């Protein structure tokens, strides 16, 4: 395939606007996969169990297809991307391998928060953008109105907008046509020395690391000797091929193509995402890599059985290879033993990672409460980033010498129908939002106009249940996106300072349950937490005091009574029913109990901490 007949593109959209469905239709229409019965909701590219269960795309996937137009055969490389704000790193990474993007917008919902953010990422990368309205088969679709919206928000020419139904297949032909006509072929050369961008990788049990690459110049074949610009390590190519959509070996990868390389990389860490590969002895200027990502939320992950730590760490290492946005460090807890402290881009990201560890690696784990990283500035101007509650200094003790605590803030944008503006403003203010502003998105002709509300808000306010509240209080209409806006000082003299709260079981502190809370909320949070713990911890043979403490001060207490001598009586009490109910809720009945000191602490004690406030 010469460059002129190659098109590398991506589908970008807000979550649920139909990316994966359209990807399936394109694969069917080009005969890459067999046609499925209409109405089947199984997306071919959503391979992970967590993706199929939740109906969201987590990992960007690559698929190649061929399409013939007036006797000329084209090679189309599609990169499907996730839409959720937590996975924006995947989006920008996928786009680095493309020359064009289909901007898909749901014709019943119009432009949503992530439509705007992905549009800007694509614009920055100078990609050709093809606007596509989807779901026009739905009675509630309002194509004219959304086309006007695209024009006013993005300056898109209404004549360029395609209208389709990814579900029925209506108009999808025109999408293929537009990809070929409007997206420029990659500018690559056969004669220049081999140069490829490594943009993704995963681990294969038999062949080691498989890297996804986009070939910028030159040709690569089995047996070629290549090297990494990043590590300077050398490899011999064992296999090359394309994703069709499964791996399909080919004799070579040509300039402009997107495909995979297996080259005997043994260690996950060797495949450095953003690396430039070249031929041994013929170095090239490395391409700009990807910006290192910044973790927004940290949590500890520990094996239920302490003996499983080595296995767990290896599983985490393998999994982080397919998701480079996760950062990992060892951590040890007096209550839970050896574990890892992981950094994520958001709580959905964290939850998905946890589920993947359980699904794909059969791990039995305990995840501690998520924390954002705080910047603690001392009077001698030393600055320390604290991402673990137990390392948070005791602010009530003046001798610790803390001058200021800075917390991370984000610039948030929320899109809602005008009617919910008041409700949304209230929600933002109750989460310490500042610089709240808004502007209208549609130009006033329709009855229900939509507004975009922007504000600066502390990250700690949105990592727990902000998204759920946002959805709940807007009847599901609000969409939400945010970007990092640095750190902001919270003055020590103000009441808003954060403190660390620790819980004690039987007088022993459980460090893994520690939380960072507002000083103003300490009483409420402390009380609520000991109550919750009291509910989830099964009764023991002896009485267990459950206490919340700040520094040395106990601020709340509940007492868990001992099981009565008649064991069966205890079994039919509330605890037994709760336990059964929980077992039913869980897919597997594998009980996750952690013995801490002499007390059995169930997994849900740790899970429940996720929904604080
Ligand atoms: P993604 O999150 O952007 O990948 O969205 P999906 O492809 O998973 O689609 C989200 C939901 O919208 C699924 O339930 C699809 O069946 C549905 N959907 C996608 N395209 C259409 C369409 O053209 N018409 C209708 N009626 N439903 C669609
Ligand atoms: Mg999807």
TrEMBL record:
<dbReference type="InterPro" id="IPR000795">
    <property type="entry name" value="T_Tr_GTP-bd_dom"/>
</dbReference>
<dbReference type="Pfam" id="PF00009">
    <property type="entry name" value="GTP_EFTU"/>
</dbReference>
<keyword id="KW-0999">Mitochondrion inner membrane</keyword>
<dbReference type="InterPro" id="IPR004161">
    <property type="entry name" value="EFTu-like_2"/>
</dbReference>
<dbReference type="InterPro" id="IPR013842">
    <property type="entry name" value="LepA_CTD"/>
</dbReference>
<protein>
    <recommendedName>
        <fullName>Tr-type G domain-containing protein</fullName>
    </recommendedName>
</protein>
<dbReference type="InterPro" id="IPR000640">
    <property type="entry name" value="EFG_V-like"/>
</dbReference>
<feature type="binding site">
    <location>
        <begin position="80"/>
        <end position="84"/>
    </location>
    <ligand>
        <name>GTP</name>
    </ligand>
</feature>
<feature type="binding site">
    <location>
        <begin position="134"/>
        <end position="137"/>
    </location>
    <ligand>
        <name>GTP</name>
    </ligand>
</feature>
<dbReference type="GO" id="GO:0005759">
    <property type="term" value="C:mitochondrial matrix"/>
</dbReference>
<dbReference type="GO" id="GO:0003924">
    <property type="term" value="F:GTPase activity"/>
</dbReference>
<keyword id="KW-0342">GTP-binding</keyword>
<feature type="domain" description="Tr-type G">
    <location>
        <begin position="4"/>
        <end position="187"/>
    </location>
</feature>
<dbReference type="InterPro" id="IPR038363">
    <property type="entry name" value="LepA_C_sf"/>
</dbReference>
<dbReference type="Pfam" id="PF00679">
    <property type="entry name" value="EFG_C"/>
</dbReference>
<keyword id="KW-0496">Mitochondrion</keyword>
<dbReference type="InterPro" id="IPR035654">
    <property type="entry name" value="LepA_IV"/>
</dbReference>
<dbReference type="Pfam" id="PF03144">
    <property type="entry name" value="GTP_EFTU_D2"/>
</dbReference>
<dbReference type="GO" id="GO:0006412">
    <property type="term" value="P:translation"/>
</dbReference>
<dbReference type="GO" id="GO:0045727">
    <property type="term" value="P:positive regulation of translation"/>
</dbReference>
<keyword id="KW-0648">Protein biosynthesis</keyword>
<dbReference type="Pfam" id="PF06421">
    <property type="entry name" value="LepA_C"/>
</dbReference>
<dbReference type="GO" id="GO:0005525">
    <property type="term" value="F:GTP binding"/>
</dbReference>
<dbReference type="GO" id="GO:0005743">
    <property type="term" value="C:mitochondrial inner membrane"/>
</dbReference>
<comment type="similarity">
    <text>Belongs to the GTP-binding elongation factor family. LepA subfamily.</text>
</comment>
<feature type="binding site">
    <location>
        <begin position="13"/>
        <end position="20"/>
    </location>
    <ligand>
        <name>GTP</name>
    </ligand>
</feature>
<dbReference type="InterPro" id="IPR027417">
    <property type="entry name" value="P-loop_NTPase"/>
</dbReference>
<dbReference type="InterPro" id="IPR005225">
    <property type="entry name" value="Small_GTP-bd"/>
</dbReference>
<keyword id="KW-0547">Nucleotide-binding</keyword>
<dbReference type="InterPro" id="IPR035647">
    <property type="entry name" value="EFG_III/V"/>
</dbReference>
<keyword id="KW-0472">Membrane</keyword>
<dbReference type="InterPro" id="IPR006297">
    <property type="entry name" value="EF-4"/>
</dbReference>
<comment type="similarity">
    <text>Belongs to the TRAFAC class translation factor GTPase superfamily. Classic translation factor GTPase family. LepA subfamily.</text>
</comment>
<dbReference type="GO" id="GO:0097177">
    <property type="term" value="F:mitochondrial ribosome binding"/>
</dbReference>
<dbReference type="InterPro" id="IPR009000">
    <property type="entry name" value="Transl_B-barrel_sf"/>
</dbReference>
<keyword id="KW-0378">Hydrolase</keyword>
<comment type="function">
    <text>Promotes mitochondrial protein synthesis. May act as a fidelity factor of the translation reaction, by catalyzing a one-codon backward translocation of tRNAs on improperly translocated ribosomes. Binds to mitochondrial ribosomes in a GTP-dependent manner.</text>
</comment>
<dbReference type="InterPro" id="IPR031157">
    <property type="entry name" value="G_TR_CS"/>
</dbReference>
């Amino acid at each position: 395939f010469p460059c002129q007949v190659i098109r590398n593109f991506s589908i970008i959209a807000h979550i649920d606007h139909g990316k994966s469905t359209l990807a399936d239709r394109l694969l069917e229409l080009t005969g890459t996969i067999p046609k499925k019965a209409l109405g089947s909701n199984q997306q071919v590219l959503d391979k992970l169990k967590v993706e199929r269960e939740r109906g969201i795309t987590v990992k960007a996937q690559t698929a190649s297809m061929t399409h013939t137009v007036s006797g000329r055969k084209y090679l189309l490389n599609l990169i499907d991307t996730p839409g959720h704000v937590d996975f924006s790193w995947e989006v920008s990474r996928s786009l680095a391998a493309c020359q064009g993007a289909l901007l898909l917008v749901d014709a019943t919902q119009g432009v949503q928060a992530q439509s705007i953010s992905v549009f800007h990422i694509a614009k920055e990368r100078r990609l050709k953008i093809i606007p596509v309205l989807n779901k026009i088969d739905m009675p509630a679709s309002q194509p004219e109105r959304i086309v006007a919206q695209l024009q006013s928000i993005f300056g898109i020419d209404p004549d360029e907008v395609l209208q389709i139904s990814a579900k029925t297949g209506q108009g999808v032909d025109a999408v293929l046509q537009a990809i070929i006509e409007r997206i420029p072929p990659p500018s690559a050369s056969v004669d220049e020395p081999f140069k490829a961008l490594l943009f993704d990788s995963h681990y294969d049990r038999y062949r080691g690391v498989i890297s996804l690459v986009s070939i910028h110049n030159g040709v690569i074949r089995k047996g070629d000797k290549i090297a990494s610009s990043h590590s300077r390590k050398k490899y011999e190519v064992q296999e090359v091929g394309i994703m069709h959509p499964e791996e399909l070996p080919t004799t070579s990868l040509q300039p402009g193509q997107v495909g995979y390389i297996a080259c005997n990389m043994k260690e996950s860490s060797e495949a450095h995402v953003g690396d430039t590969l070249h031929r041994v002895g013929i170095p090239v200027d490395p391409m700009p890599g990807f910006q290192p990502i910044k973790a927004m939320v940290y949590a500890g992950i520990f094996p239920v059985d302490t003996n499983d730590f080595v296995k767990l760490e290896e599983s985490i290492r393998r999994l982080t290879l397919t998701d480079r946005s996760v950062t990992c460090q060892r951590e040890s807890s007096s209550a839970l033993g050896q574990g890892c402290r992981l950094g994520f881009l958001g709580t959905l990201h964290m939850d998905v990672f946890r589920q993947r560890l359980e699904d794909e690696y059969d791990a039995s784990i305990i995840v501690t409460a998520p924390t954002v990283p705080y910047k603690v500035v001392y009077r001698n101007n030393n600055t320390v980033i604290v991402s673990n509650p137990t390392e948070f200094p005791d602010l009530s003790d003046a001798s610790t010498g803390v001058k200021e605590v800075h917390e991370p803030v984000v610039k948030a944008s929320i899109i809602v129908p005008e009617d919910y503006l008041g409700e949304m403003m209230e929600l933002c203010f109750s989460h310490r939002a500042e610089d709240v502003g808004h502007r209208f998105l549609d130009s006033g002709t329709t009855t229900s106009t939509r507004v975009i509300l922007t504000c600066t808000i502390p990250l700690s306010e949105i990592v727990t249940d902000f998204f759920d509240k946002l959805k709940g209080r807007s009847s599901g209409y609000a969409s939400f996106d945010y970007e990092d806006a640095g750190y902001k000082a919270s003055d020590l003299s103000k009441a808003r300072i954060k403190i660390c709260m620790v819980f004690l079981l039987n007088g022993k502190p459980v460090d893994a349950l520690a939380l960072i809370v507002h000083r103003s909320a300490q009483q409420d949070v402390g009380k609520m937490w000991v109550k919750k713990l009291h509910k989830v911890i099964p009764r023991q043979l002896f009485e267990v005091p459950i206490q919340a403490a700040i520094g040395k001060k106990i601020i709340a207490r509940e007492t868990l009574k001992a099981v009565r001598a008649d064991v069966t009586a205890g079994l039919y009490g509330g605890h037994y029913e709760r336990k059964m109910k929980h077992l039913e809720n869980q897919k597997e009945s594998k009980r996750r109990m952690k013995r801490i000191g002499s007390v059995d602490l169930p997994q849900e004690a740790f899970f429940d901490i996720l929904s604080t406030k």
